[in-house]
Queue: 2 jobs
Job 1
Amino acid sequence: MHTKNISTAVIKRLPRYYRYLGELLAHDVVRISSKELSEKMGVTASQIRQDLNNFGGFGQQGYGYQVEYLYTEIGKILGLDKKNKLIILGAGNLGMALTNSTGLQKRGFEIIGIFDVNPQVVGKKVRDIEIYHVDTLESFLKEHEVDMAALTVPKAVAPALAADVVKWGVKAIWNFAPTDLHLPSDVVQENVHLTESLMRLSYKKKAAEEEKK
Amino acid sequence: MHTKNISTAVIKRLPRYYRYLGELLAHDVVRISSKELSEKMGVTASQIRQDLNNFGGFGQQGYGYQVEYLYTEIGKILGLDKKNKLIILGAGNLGMALTNSTGLQKRGFEIIGIFDVNPQVVGKKVRDIEIYHVDTLESFLKEHEVDMAALTVPKAVAPALAADVVKWGVKAIWNFAPTDLHLPSDVVQENVHLTESLMRLSYKKKAAEEEKK
C-alpha cells in the first residue's frame, strides 16, 4: 500500500500502535480485539478501528486484529522493515543517551559512527562504535551509506553542521538543537525540542492548578 | 486572562513563539509585524495573527507586536513567570543531558536534586546539584517543594517510581521512559518518546522516497 493515502494524524499515532503491538507480540499474543486494545491504549475502540482500517481488511468482526500481521505492516509503513543506519553528531550526554538507547537498537536503527570535536573523546569507542573527529565527516559520508543523522550539537553550530551533512548526501535529520533548521525540500527532519516539551508540561501544570480554583 | 480559553493547538505552538520572541528580545527588537514574524517562523501571517490575538489587543495595524509584552504574557501562560523546581530521576546520560541543559536554566527551570541507585554516582555533584540515593526520595519530597519530576529511568522501573513520587506529592511528570504512565487525574504528564520520534523521521524519509518514484 502507498503511505501517501494515510493522514498525518494517523501517522503520528502509528509509532504508539507499533509499540503496543510489539509488546503483545513479545507476550505471544496472536490476536486482539479493538475493545481490548482500546482498554490497553486508553483510546476509543472506534478510533482504533478507524486508524487501523487504513491498513486493509483485518480486524474482522468477532475475530480481532492479527497482531503479527499488523505489527509487520505498520513496521513497513514506518520504514522499519530494513536496517536504518544512523550517525550521531555530538558525543555529549544526549549523543551518548541515543547511542546507548536499547529502544533504537530494538527497532533496527544501527548507529555506525559518532562525531565530535573534543580531542578527549575522539578515538574512543562506545558500544564498539567509534567516535570520529567532525573533520572526517565528509570522507565518512562518501564511504558509508547513512540514512539519518542525529544532531545533538550546540545550537550555535547546529545549522552549519546540518547544512554540511545534507550537502554530503544525508536526507534525514533528527534535530535536538533548540533551533529550526532550514533544509532543502527533499530533506526530511524531525525535531525534539526538550525545553519546549518541558514548557508544555509547565503549561499543563498551571492550567490544572487554575482549574481547581 | 484565563488559559482555559486557548485551544490545545495554539498551546502546542506557544513554546515556539516564546523561543522566537526571546531571540528577538535578546537582539533588542522592540516590535515586529506579523509579516516579519511569519517570514522568520515559516508560518503564515494569518496563522500568527489568529494565534496571538488570543492574548488580547496587541498587534495593531501598521504597528506590529510589542515583543517584550507578548513574550511576558506568553511566559505567564506557560507558567514561566516563576521558578519551577525540578528533580531528575535517573543520573544516566539522559538525566545528565537535562541537568546540563542551558535551555532549561534559561527558562527558569531549577534542578534541585538528582536521584539514582548506582553507588558509583550517589553522593557526587553535577553543577553543584547533588546526586542522592532514590531511597531518600520520600524524605526529600517532604522537605522540598518540587514542581516537576523528570523520569529518565529504565522502562521496567519507571511506572513504580512515577507512582511513588506522585504519592509523595509531585503533580507533574516529564516522562522519558518508553511506556505510558497511568497517573491520577490531578497529575499532568508530558511524554518524550525518543524512539517514536525517530520512527516518525523514518516514516517521513520513506514517504519522501516513494514520492520521488
Job 2
Amino acid sequence: MHNDGLSETILSAKPVFDGRILHVEVLDVTLPDGSPAKREVVRHPGAAAVLPMWPDGTVTMERQYRAPLDRVFWEVPAGKLDHKGEDRLDAAKRELLEETGLVADKWVHLGDYASSVGFTDEVIGLYAACGLHAGATHLDEGEFLRAERRPFAEVLADVLAGRIIDGKTVCAVLQANERLRTGEIVP
Amino acid sequence: MHNDGLSETILSAKPVFDGRILHVEVLDVTLPDGSPAKREVVRHPGAAAVLPMWPDGTVTMERQYRAPLDRVFWEVPAGKLDHKGEDRLDAAKRELLEETGLVADKWVHLGDYASSVGFTDEVIGLYAACGLHAGATHLDEGEFLRAERRPFAEVLADVLAGRIIDGKTVCAVLQANERLRTGEIVP
C-alpha cells in the first residue's frame, strides 16, 4: 500500500462476467483509512484511434452505429487491440487500413486517453496519420461503417458545438488542432 | 430499423451482471445486412465533470486513485449522476461543492462526452465553473481525493504532453482552452 493517503490496496478480484470482449470483476479493496470497499471494474483490451489528415485540410471521418447509445456517431477510425499489450501504433496502422483502405507515411502520437477511469481500464492510443495513400480495405466481418473526407475546420466546429461527442474523437481532434497551431503537425 | 445501411435493430437485452453501479447486458441485434450479432453493453447512469477556473489563471484539480488502472490520476472534479436522467448541470454543481467546497456564479457548458461508445452508454456532461467562492465540503463516504489549485497553462501543458490522460479531463481542458482563446470564457 502506498502511503499517499489516496491509494487503495486491491485484495482480490472476483470475475462476474466473462464476455467475448468485456470482462467484469468485483474487486475487494482496502481504502486509505483501512476500511473495506468493493469496486466494479470492466476489463477491456484497449484500443487505438487515428485521425487521418490530408494536405488539402480534410480529414477522413467515419459514420458508425453504436448499440450502447442506439445511434450513429461521427468518429475517427479506431479499433480494439488484438490482445492486451499489443503495440497501440501497430493497432492504429491496422485499423486505418482495415476501415479506410489507407496507409500513412508519418504518424504523430496525440496522447493516450483513459476513457472512464472510474470503472474501466480501457486506454485508447490516439494518433494523427499524415502522408496518406491508398492501400486495400478489409472491413472486419459484421462491421458496417461509412468513411468520408470532411474539412478539418468543419469537424473542429462540430466538436466545439457539441455535435461530435464521441470521447476519443473529441480528444483526437482537439489534440491535433493544438499541434496544427504549433506546426508540430503538417498534413 | 433505419434504412441508412449502418444502424442495427436491437431485438432483446439480457442482463448478465447487476452491480451497485454497473449493469451489464448482452444485446441480440440484427446487423444492417440482416444477420444476427451480439453486443456487450455496460449501462451506466452517466456523470458530470467541472473545470473550476479562477481569475488568477489557476484551476482546481484533484488527485484521485482509480482502482481499474490501480493508480492516482489528475482529474477535474466529477461524479456520477444520482439517477439516469438527472440534470447534468445540477450534478456538476453538487459534485463541485462536495469535492472542493466551491460554488460558482457562472457555468459554461463545454460539451458532452461519450466515454466509450463501443461498449457503454455513459455520457459525461462537461462544464467550466467561473465566479467561484467558498461553500462547504462534504466528501462522499469512502471518497478520498486531494484538491489543488494549479496554473491552467501548466495543466494544459500536461494534457498536451500526455501526463494527464483521464479522458473527461483531457476533453474539458482542451474545450476550455478553445473558449478562453475566443473570449467565450473569462474566468
